[in-house]
Amino acid sequence: MNLPITCDKPTKEEIRRAIKYLNNNKATGPDDIPAEALKTDIDTPVELLYPFFTEIWEKKEVPSDRRDGYLIKLPKKGDLSN
User: Fold this and answer.
1) DSSP class of residue 21?
2) What integer best gives the mean pLDDT of the chain?
3) Within-domain flag for 7
4) 33's torsion region: left (phi>0), alpha (psi -120 to 50) or beta?
């Protein structure tokens, strides 16, 4: 079964869609920018993030100054020792 997944560089429209789907009224990440702020003028964060994601995509590496603070999802159910 083939899933509709592309391995192409993220587009501005994909970034825009991802920002729109961010949940409001949630704790901010390491950047301290709430989702509501990103959504107020969605074109600005898209234009700022697009070159950043393009660089990551082309170099296949997250810049070292951006590695800290990424989320690690923890299981909420089941055996937590796994």
Assistant:
1) T
2) 80
3) no
4) beta
Domain of 40 in residue numbering reads as 12-66
Mean pLDDT within 29-39? 86
Length of the chain: 82
CA–CA dist 16, 12 (Å, integer): 6
Is residue 78 in some structural domain? no
Does some domain include residue 72? no
29 lies in some domain: yes
Phi-psi group of 78: left, alpha or beta (phi > 0 → left; psi -120 to 50 → alpha; rest → beta) = left
Q: HSE of 79 in the Cβ direction (CA atoms, 13 Å)? A: 2
pTM over 0.85: no
Is the separation of the CB atoms in 57 and 10 below 8 Å? yes
Q: Give pLDDT, residue 61.
A: 82
Number of structural domains (the chain) is 1
